[in-house]
Fold:
Amino acid sequence: MSANHDRANLLEVRGLTKIFGTLTACDHIDLNIAKGEIHALLGENGAGKSTLVKMLFGSLEPNSGEIFWDGKPVTITSPGVAKKLGIGMVFQHFSLFEALTAAENIALSLNDGSPISTIAAKARALSFSYGLPLDPDSLVGDLSVGERQRIEIIRCLLQTPQLIILDEPTSVLTPQEADKLFETLERLRAEGKSILYISHRLEEVKRICDRATVLRHGKVVGHCNPRQETASSLARMMVGSEVKAVVRAPAEGIETAPALLEIRGLTRKPATPFAIPLKNINLTVRAGEVIGIAGVAGNGQGEFFESVSGEVLQQDAGSVRIRGKDAGGLSITGRRLMGAAFVPEERLGHGAAPRMKLSENLLLSRHATDGKAFVGSGGMVKNGAVYSAAQRIITAMDVRKSAPDPEAAALSGGNLQKFIVGRELDRKPSVMIVNQPTWGVDAGAAAHIRQALIELARSGSAVLVISQDLDELFELSDAIAVMHNGELSTPLPIAEATFEKVGLLMGGAEPGHAEHSLEVA
Amino acid sequence: MRIELVKRPQRSALFSVLSPFIAFALTIIAGAIMFALLGVNPLNAFEIYFVEPISQVWQLHELAIKAAPLILIAVGLSVCYRANIWNIGAEGQFIFGAIFGSIIPVLFPGFEGPLVLPLMLLFGMVGGALYASIPALLKTRFGTNEILTSLMLVYVAQLFLDWTVRGPWRDPQSHGFPQTIQFGDSAVLPELMPDAGRANWGFVFALVAAVLAWLMMGRMLKGFEVRVMGSSPRAGRFAGFGFNRMVFFAFLLSGALAGLAGISEVSGAIGQLQPVISPGYGFTAIIVAFLGRLNPLGIVAAGLVLALTYLGGEAVQSALGISDKVARVFQGMLLFFVLGCDTLIHYRIRLIGMALTKPNDAAKLEAAPKLEEAR
Structure:
């Protein structure tokens, strides 16, 4: 079912431009979407995909350019106008109230005064007819991320749109859930609806999309038929150059290497009504190996990271052991002093203070471990030493910046992440725990960070990587464990792991009994 | 036509420095309008308000007396506010410092010698710190809002002082006046230059506190901790800094400095406890802290400016017959404009000619100049 070129264009965009301050986020974008096609919008983070889509949905005002809907020029001044035209959108970050039911959430966005029971009945009928079963009376807080996405999709479909925009829809889904979504999208296409599908996952674009528009640095760099391209030719278009592949030498003698990080029966009660409790987590990371933790977002990864890093302390001191010693009762500073290093998921506001200089952000995580080098007598900070250490990290990690020592917020996401990872690598930690190492990072920087993590492990450290990106975990890890609903499966050695096996575990197939679920797979 | 605020990529160093001056200029303009409406020639009024009170040496001493408590308190508050902790109750901590510091001269008037004054100052700091620890404790234990608790404790302190000087601590020989006995000689803070004017050591304390706080905030790990906790608490927790510890540190430090200001004022300028010992120093110091950009050295300058508003208020009252509440109006306007002008540090103002009507027009009107700007 490939695109039919004599088909009329539903949406035509000519020369659409959006400027933020000194940054041209979208630079004279041209885009045509035909009726009944799935059109991919491809590009790296920061290429301008979200900005373009927000202009189409009326949440941003373009500086210049034209939009034609069904051949007629239109001005989309607000999401309300977009909905009236027949444009629906499913955002990457959901806007749902956790304390309300699915139907109530839908009613809030429809805002047409129809009773909840009518909406619930409609939503139920629609959800089953599209193969996205949903119980409208369930509380959003109790639903998985995949189910929440269904609410967003149903909510969008209830407005009978002609064009549906999906922003990175599979980033929160297991491979199996993604398959279901693709079936739904194909049904919608068969009904003559158009879909603008935003993604940076090339395999799925090749699989379901009829045409693709590729963005780079705010400009359209090409239109193509993804089915006739290879993943690497698409990647080249997105990135603009070849991305160096990550090299992972086989790990040797790991079975006998000392266990540097041990987690024994780690349990944590939920801190808030919608937090995920951690249930009896066991894991050992030995010197020289990289262990990956896969899982759909919101299955306890954040809670797990906080517990292991010491931002939250454990009752049982033996539940987290670093280099053979109990660390459960120690603060994050205490655990750092034992040789551990941490990189949290959020860069701005957690891993780094946005309005502070890079050198100050170096001090942030290393004021205690490098106390002698960075802090002098009477608690005076040795600014010179901190500054030169920051410059050393900037050089080692190839951090690109506009000033010698800029504020963290002034760096792009990828460059800041390189600095934050580099800040910890520079210490040569014996245990390194990283949450989402390359989330929102461009391909070149991501490869750099992954390679650095592998080299750290091969030099004798234990590395634990938590990630939602399966491609990344398969590239990095010597074994992959899966976190689902606060439970952690037994790690699968990378030689035995497949997307399908890991995907089943992500969907909740008997965690803790990986071997058993393998037979099912 | 509409006004748009555009976020700057970095904070503007230029406007960081200019903002208080722009605010001061706007205050002067608004003040001129106010004086004109009151039927007074603004130029004449400004001369009486801002120039005459500091035209002689002894008047400068009076300025220092008024500025000392403002600076001391504001330095402590600036540390609090940098940590994003909102101590609004410095007035109460000032009063409790004064009461605690007066224990020795009031209850043990026979105790004399060189030890008395240092002990009094120490007691004053302890009193202020103890009183400030109440909102800190409530915040860390029960999650109460420190703005409300610290503010309400001001009224408790004011009434407690009133009761103290009318009741248990009243001087039996005061003929019914609500006041304590006059402090003995060794309990009075000495004047700096007795021949030139009345300014006492309180002003020196203020300068020393400002310099030490400046060193701490700019150069020491503790100051770094304060700034991190204030700007990104989650990053602070990641750094291993404790939130509760920071709440106590900020409250105890600012309370101690307010307490020191209180006992210095009572021991230096007044010489005894009275029902009212402060013309609202603890509140005016909030303005001082912000006008000084929460920078201890800036606070010294800001403290002198605000001290002048007090002196000017008294001057226009006696010379022009205008209420000395004018001083409060000036202080209020100054704070208002300072907070307003601070927007310029993080934002640029852009005037936009017309709302978008057609994309074509928009392209002509807007795209061209903005593209140039972008390149």
